[in-house]
Fold this sequence. Notes:
4 helices, 0% strand, mainly alpha
Amino acid sequence: MAVTLEAFKTSQRVDNDEDDSLINGYLSAAKSFAINAIGADDTANTFYNRDDVTDLFDTLVQALAGAYYQQRSALSATTVVPVSLVSDSIINQLRAMWDEWQLSMED
């Protein structure tokens, strides 16, 4: 469960180091947003380290951070640009998986 700076820069076709601090902040914010939208895990990150979750979660973090990076004007008091529907659909899928996981932990 970790999208690296290098992986993000490759996906966004960023070939310089000027925005590294900004990108790291966006990656951290995207990860926090995703976890808060889905469910806070235990300290061992049991849910987010599942094989059926990691790729979805990393894709979600990439999509959110990419939206933050590409649409920086949306973070100011100007025209709002909505976050991709990809993010919403993955969040909904992971929420459902989270609910099932929580129920299985109660048994």
